[in-house]
Design goal:
With 496 residues, the chain is an alpha/beta fold. It contains 19 helices and 14 strands. It folds into two domains: 244 residues, Periplasmic binding protein-like II (D-Maltodextrin-Binding Protein, domain 2), CATH 3.40.190.10; 212 residues, Periplasmic binding protein-like II (D-Maltodextrin-Binding Protein, domain 2).
Amino acid sequence: MKTLRICTSVLIAIFVIAISGCAQNPDSSAQTTPSPTQSASAQNQEQSSSYLRPRGELKNSIKQGETYNYLLWAINDPSEPFEHETEINKAGWTERKATLESNYGIKINYVMPTVNWWQDACASAYSGNPSVDFMHCGGPFTVLPMYAYNGSPASVVLPLSDYTEYADFSDDNWWNQEIQEINTTFNGKLYFAVPQSIGIARVGFNQIVLFNKEILERNGYSAETLYQWNQNGEWTWEKFREVAIACTDADNSIYGIAPAYQNALIWSLAASNGGAFITQVENNGASYFEFTGNSNEMLEAWDFLVQLGRDGVLYRDQGYTADAETFLAGKTAMMTTYANRISELVNAGNYPEYGVIMPPKAPGAEDYVSDVNWFDPYCAFKGTSNPEGTVQLLSDYCCPLYSLEDERNQAAFEAELLSLTSDQGSQWTLNNIAAKSSPQSYFMFSNLTFPDGTNFMNKVTEQWTTFVDGQQTPANYFDSIADSVNSLLQEAQGLK
């Protein structure tokens, strides 16, 4: 459920690495286990609900009289969990809960997060007495710590793919198969479900390039020119560099490019060149993640970024909001960022006229690639009295309101698109960017810390100024840290 709250609200700038809540979990001990019951009429009622996914031939394992505890990671009041939702989502989630409770004769409790919400949930499951049954996990940063909790892989979360009789997470209309395969499947088993998103939110985590029309036009580049390049496949690294150089006016503190927080620019450049900081590999029947930040593809991306830095076109302040602030102030011509941050411009009320285009193509690339490094995972915990029912309820409750093929989903997308831009060139980008998505894994490691206290993401993304200034080269630096990064990754995955 929370995916839709997050993903639909993604238009309100979700750029979160860690979240904390408050208060204590309600009592979760009251679970009864009478015989499974569900009448044919209840099944028909379930199928007829406009907000419930059809179950088809799936078996029912939910037992009448059970109570299920659902942890929502960012709520303030379990009696009012949808206070920041759109009206359609408020109605949808309210109806879904009521219908499931009525159909199956169960109760669903919304559980408040504690300060250490996911850690506490894992600790209770590890002890054999889980405080919650299933939960929204906040983002990719919790996936590995939860999967390998206490250094013991798969010790607290259920393998969802073991319950195919009761729940189906393999349908791409409802669940994001590419992200699940790359980020949440370990040794052939799915542990975290990643729902599709509805409306414009389905491209909210895609990397794009925003450009300031006025800055570009006064430097000889019309929006129509960029849109033509974009649609013809001619928007390349070199075009990107050309425009950035032309638009930079250092004397007036105007720069061609804002690399963005944690250097989103390198995310885009790497993905477009087929590179990644972290790659999941298979070895002797086991799958695990290893560091690939010193690969040729990554180093080529870094070398191009270094060239941009030496051209003097990069705004160097990488503060959390610096890129948006300078773009709004008319001080940067282009910004690489998540598509969801377009709403920051709209919500600001006083923003420059902007355009939206694809991240530029790497030399030799056949097509555009848009990095997708964030997602909203869900999991179910071991130790619940009815694991089959828990996985079933997660599947029924936490999938989107509508499938990707549903006309209502497309209608929502188009309506939200029009609220963000009436510019046909920008609309073309947002309509086509989903097909260019390239899921990445590195935010799964975002909270990892090296022995010296350095954060993983900072260590691998924010060294570019030293490269530009000639203090070290990307190749030497990433070769020098490869062993320590892999050691950290192995520990995080419970491999050592």
